[in-house]
Amino acid sequence: MEEQLKRTPLYQSHLDLKARMVPFGGWDMPVQYAGVMQEHQAVREQVGMFDVSHMGEFRFKGEGALAFLQSITPNDVSKLKPGRAQYNMLPGNQGGLIDDIYIYCISPEEYLMVVNASNIEKDFAHVQSLITPEVEFSNESDQWGLIAVQGPRAEETLQPHIDVDLSKKKKNSVFFAELLGFPVMLARTGYTGEDGFEVFVKAEQAPALWSKLLDLGIVPCGLGARDTLRLEAGFPLYGHEFNETLTPLATHYGWVIKDKEFHGKDLLVGQPIVRQLVGLTLEKVPAREGYPVKSEGQVVGMVTSGTLSPTLKKPIAMAYIDVDALDKPLSVEIRGKDAPAQRVELPFLSK
Amino acid sequence: METPVELKYAKTHEWVNTEGDVITVGISDYAQDQLGDVVYVELPELGREVSIGEAVAVVESVKTASDIYSPASGVIVEVNEALGDSPEQVNESPYEGGWLFKVRFTDLSDDLVDAQEYEQYME
After folding, report:
1. Cβ neighbours, 10 Å, residue A12
2. How far is the C-alpha of A229 from the C-alpha of A238, rounded, in Å?
3. What are B's interface residues with A at a Cβ cutoff of 8 A?
4. Of the candidates A74, A249, B48, B122, which lies 20 to 30 Å from B33 by C-alpha distance?
5. Which residue, among B7, B29, B30, has the nearest Cα to B112 in the 3D structure?
6. Residue A35 and residue A57: Cα distance in Å, rounded?
7. What pTM does this model have?
8. CB contacts < 8 Å between A and B, how many?
C-alpha cells in the first residue's frame, strides 16, 4: 500500500507557487521553488523563508515540568530562563539519540519542545513512557504552522510589521507578538547559519501569514536549500549525523551533554568512541551520503551528508571516520574512483 | 516544457538525435527541471564501448547524483568537454549547449519514443 503523505497547513500555498513537492519523512514537502542555488543565496545574502510546519510541538505544563525535562535530556534545562530557547537531545533506551530537539521556556512551569517531523510519533511514545503524573503533556503538532524566516535581512524586513523591538531580542529569545496582524510566537533561532526567526502561528492562519510574508519580498525556499544551508553551517541532521546508535560525544555537539543525571546517560556516555564526525572538502565531484571514506586503500568511514556548497563553490561533506585514521590522508570513493578529501573544521562557513 | 519534435526520447529522460550512424545524447528539458541546478557532469571516456541501458554518465545536481543511460550500443566518439567548466549548460540549454555524449552505434534501443509519446508518458 502506498504511504499516505501528510500535508502541512501550507500545502496549497506551495502548489500555488508551483513548488516541486517531494516525500520527506512521511510528509509531502516543497524541495524547491525557483531553484536551490537561488534560494540558498537569498538566505545567505537577503532573506528567505521555509515551511517547517511539519516539525512537531509538544507542550509540558505544571510544577514538575522542569524536573521532568531535566530528567530526560542531557542539556541543563534549569539554565533555561523564561523567554529563552535551548538546543537539546532525546537519548533513547539503547544508547543513541532518538532525536535532537529544541526546548522553549514560556514560563517556569510551561515549556514547548520542538521535535523533528519524522520522529513525532516515536518521540511522543518515548516521552509518554517516562512522563510523571505531575506534568501535563500534550502533542500540539497539528495545531501549529511554523515558518522560518532566515537571512541577514530578516530583522529589518519584519520590524516594520511587528509590535516588538526586534533589536532587543537576542539569539535564542522566545517571545509573543503581533506580526502582520497575526498573533504569533517567535524564536530567534534557525537552521541555516544565518540570523532569523522561527514563527509559530495557528495552523489555520498559516497560509494568510505566509502570503503576507511573500508580499514583503521574502523568498520562499525549499528543503533543498535548507539542506545546503545547514550543511555549510555544520549542523547535524537527524537520520544522517545522529541516530539511535550514535553518541553525540563523537561529534562537535558533545557540549550538549552536561554533568548531570538523565535518562539513558550511562548508555549514551558509556559508548566507546570508535568513529568521529568530521568535515571534508573535495576538489570537484560531490560526495554523497553512504559513499565510503578511505585511507591508504582501506575503508575508514562513511559520508553522512554531502553536496556542492553553493557559497564555497566546492564539494563539502560530513563523515564518520575511524579515530585512528583521523590524521591520515583521506579520500572518498565516488563511483569506483578515489577522490582526495581534506579534513576541515566544522562549520564549513563561519558567520 | 520544451520537447523538440525532431528528437527521440527514452523513458529514462535522455533525448537522442540521430545523424547517420552517430547519435547525440542529452537529457530532456523535463529531466533538467526535475534535477534542479546541475553542478557537475561526469562524462564517459572516449572510445569506451557501451551497451543499451548501461549507465555511462552522471549528472549531479545540488541534491543528488543521477545516472544517464546509453540509448544505444556502440562506442563513445565525442563528449561535451565544455560541461567541465559550465555544467549549468544542462539546465540552460538541454538540447544544445547541454548535450552530453555521442555514440557511434551498432544497435539502437527499441524503446525510444517520439516527442508526442514522451509528453504523454510524462503526464
Report:
1. 11
2. 15
3. 34, 36-37, 39-40, 42, 58, 60-65
4. B48
5. B7
6. 29
7. 0.93
8. 39
Which string of DSSP letters, residue by residue, matches A312-349?
TTEEEEEEEEEGGGTTS-EEEEETTEEEEEEEEPSPSS
CA angle B23, B27, B33 (to 5 degrees): 165
How far the first Cα of chain A sits from its last, in Å, is 46
Supply A229's cell numbers: 544551508
Q: What is the dihedral of CA A31, A35, A38, A41, to 10 degrees?
A: 30
**Rounded Cα–Cα distance for residues A331 and A342 (Å):** 8
Residues 6+ apart with CB under 8 A from B88: B37, B38
CA distance A172 to B19: 63
Closest CA to B10 of B73, B63, B69, B78: B69
**A206's grid cell:** 498559516
Q: Tell me the percentage of chain A whose pLDDT exceeds 70.
A: 99
**How does pLDDT run across A189-248, given as a tens digit for each residue?**
999 999 999 999 999 999 999 999 999 999 999 999 999 999 999 999 999 999 999 999
Amino acid at A81: K
With a cut of 0.90, is the ipTM above it?
no
Integer Cα distance of A21 and A276 in angstroms: 34
Chain A contact set for B63 (CB, 8 A): 31, 36, 224, 227, 307
Interface test with A, best of B1, B33, B39, B42 (most A CBs within 10 A): B39
**How far apart are the CA of A288 and the nearest CA of chain B, in angstroms?**
8
For residue range A110-161, what is the model confidence (pLDDT) as tens digits? Answer: 999 999 999 999 999 999 999 999 999 999 999 999 999 999 999 999 999 9
Contacts 24+ apart (CB under 8 A), B29-32: B29/B1, B29/B2, B29/B3, B29/B94, B29/B95, B30/B1, B30/B3, B30/B122, B31/B94, B32/B90, B32/B91, B32/B94, B32/B98
Does residue B80 contact residue B18 with C-beta atoms inside 8 Å? no
